[in-house]
Amino acid sequence: MLHPDPSTRPPPRPGTRSSRAQPGSDRPAGKLQEALANAHTAIRRGARIRHIYQHPARYSGSIRDYLSQVPAQHLRVRTTELTVERLIIIDRSVAHIPASADRSTALRISHPALVSYLIQVYEVLWAQAVPLAENHQATAPNAPVTAVQHSIARLLAEGHVDDVVARKMGISVRTCRSHIARLMQTLGATSRTHPGTLLARSGSTSTSPHEPPA
Asked: What is the pLDDT of residues 136-159, one digit of tens each?
């Protein structure tokens, strides 16, 4: 069954859990205001909320403003380097996925087997994602590499061009190129694929996601 974008639909029932994965690194202000109103209503009814964003969302002023207005004890947020598609699961019984390329409509799923499968997908994403408030050590004292830049380095090492890297990261090509320039300068890289090689040699998987972009 098709519905309008469920991100602004009525909040869940009392005592439920709302688990959401959101693509990209920013959202229109109007949708965030509607989502904020729904979040407050859901929290008053006893719901618990989880969000998964992509790493660049850490630097989004609109998303941080939204998160700052939701009581922290009712909201858990993590970010991931993966390219995620919108997924909303309510009370482990109903799921919504996009039903159109522009995500203006959603498919409502209530079949227990399909919902159970999507819950497992979400839990894997959640386990691999990084808590928003968590600080990671830099790869070297004098060479801080953010989580975003670490992911970009990996994608460059795989041979992806700038626009593909930007799309996978959910950021603009301009922002992506700014990260690449800073990454190459920080690591002293001599080519686009060099940062990934340098990070692999260092054996470091910990990054500093709170380092602001250029």
From this structure: 333 444 446 777 788 888 888 888
